[in-house]
């Protein structure tokens, strides 16, 4: 059995646990642990960086077993682990919270866009290329001119800044179908497999350049960081 601890606590940096399973992927060994701190790439979010007993690993989802398994970077090889063996696991916490801040900011921007009457079309929460893309079911005349696009972007900025100032909580629950639903208070709810900050007040330096419109899509690029933790 594997516990996805990265869902329960975004900020859990290390844990003592046991090996749950071992195997091979593309000829290279992998190890899966019972208390898994490692978030694999998915849902528009990059994978965590982590360590198992000091060996640097990258987590990936193994489609055969459904487990999150850890493989090594480059040509380095994992040692031979045995099922049930005690191990220490750790993640790169600054990288984790940077990813979580970008993902949560993306949900918040989506909520602000929906408030403008737009519908989500695509998203990416990767550092340096984070963006939310929308379509406008009804024509939005503001988007036809540079001045109007800036006006629309400013409306998004105002909505985002207001929610952050209120420090609205970020929570999650599993629905009746077992899907994980992430809530930004009453602003927004969506199925999501990513990591998130604990409250919108944890977001800092959220920046939205003037949106762009291309091939019928409204593209809102953004950047965000986690506030400094004491």
UniProtKB/TrEMBL annotation:
Q: Which organism is the protein's source?
A: Streptomyces violarus
Q: Which SUPFAM superfamilies match?
A: ThrRS/AlaRS common domain, Translation proteins
What this protein is called in its record is: Ser-tRNA(Ala) deacylase AlaX
Q: Which GO terms describe its molecular function?
A: nucleotide binding
User: What domain of life does the native source organism fall in?
Assistant: Bacteria
